[in-house]
Amino acid sequence: MNQQFIVPDLTIFLQVSPAECLSRIQASRPHQEFFEELKTLQRTSARYQWLVAAFPQHIRVINGEQLPGKIAAEIFRLINSHSKQGLG
């Protein structure tokens, strides 16, 4: 089924620890969904880490625990750099 899958030109992964994810979830709303538990977030994180390792040429990692302005600046830099590479 996935043999026809088109690989994105660029994927940006905001890496945030499962503990930080849980902390943000708890701070942002009064209840958690059933999948928003530390063990589930840890398993999900491990799967994303596997993808990052399996496709290093397509996935760029940004520390998602930085200040929002710094994250945005890094995203813009990556997109701009990628766009310039594609023009050649």
Structure description:
By secondary structure, the protein is mainly alpha-helical. The protein has one domain. The chain has helices at 18-28, 38-54, 68-86, and strands at residues 11-15, 59-63. The chain has a two-stranded parallel sheet with strand order 1-2.
Layout: helices, strands, pairs:
Elements: E1 11-15, H1 18-28, H2 38-54, E2 59-63, H3 68-86
Parallel strand pairs: 1-2
Helix pairs in contact: 1-2
What structural keywords apply?
3 helices, 88 residues, 2 strands, single chain, mainly alpha, two-stranded parallel ribbon, globular
How are helices and strands ordered from N to C?
EHHEH
Number of strands: 2
As a percent range, the share of strand residues is: 5-15%
- For the residues shown, what is the average pLDDT? 89
Low-confidence stretches: none
Rg result: 16 Å
Q: Report the sheet with the most strands, covering strand number, pairing sense and barrel closure.
A: 2 strands, parallel
Quickly count the domains: 1
User: In DSSP terms, counting alpha (H) and pi (I) runs of 4 or more, how many helices?
Assistant: 3
Which of globular, elongated, flat, extended, rod-shaped describes the shape? globular
